[in-house]
Amino acid sequence: MSTTLIKAGAVTLLAMSMAACSSMPAPTTELAVTEKAVKDAEIAGAREYAPLELRRANEKYEAAELAMQEEDYESAKLLTDEALVDAELAEAKSYSEKSKIALQELRDSIDMMRSEITRAQGS
Fold first, then answer.
1. Residue 111 is assigned to a structural domain of this protein
2. Residue 27 — φ and ψ, nearest 5°?
C-alpha cells in the first residue's frame, strides 16, 4: 500500500511540475527588451570595447529565440535574462572605456598646455 501511495505522490508531483512549466507565459516582452539592450550595446561601441560580452549577449539572445520557437519558455526566459545582463555589461564597459580614453586625451591636452606655458615663461 505504501508503494502505491508513493507512486501516486510521485505522479501527482510530476503532473504539478509539468503544469507549472507549461503555464509559464512566453517571455516576448523580455525578448524585446533584450534585443534593444543588445542594439544599445552595439551603438555604445561594444564591438570595439567589449566584444566578448557583446558576443555572449548575442549568443544567448539567439539561443533564447530558438527556445521560444521550441516553446521552451522557461529556458527562453533564463536566456533572455542572461543576455540582458551581458548586453548591459557590454554597454557599460564600452562607456567606461570611452571615458578612460577621453580622460587620457584631456590629461595629454593639459600636459601640452603646461609645456607651452613653461616654454612661454622661459622666453
1. yes
2. -80, 60
What range defines the domain where residue 92 resides? 25-122
For position 48, which CATH number holds?
1.20.1270.390
| Cα gap 46→40, rounded to integer Å | 9
Give the three cell numbers for residue 45. Answer: 561601441
The dihedral through the CA atoms of 39, 42, 47, 52 has a sign that is negative
| pLDDT value at residue 15 | 56
In tens, the pLDDT along 25-53 reads 999 999 999 999 999 999 999 999 999 99
Q: Smallest Cα–Cα separation from 33: which of 92, 89, 94, 85?
A: 85
pTM (2 d.p.): 0.73
Q: What angle do CA 41, 84, 57 make, to 5 degrees?
A: 65
Residue 15 inside a domain? The answer is no
pLDDT classification of 58: cutoffs 50, 70, 90:
very high
> For the chain, how many structural domains are there in total?
1
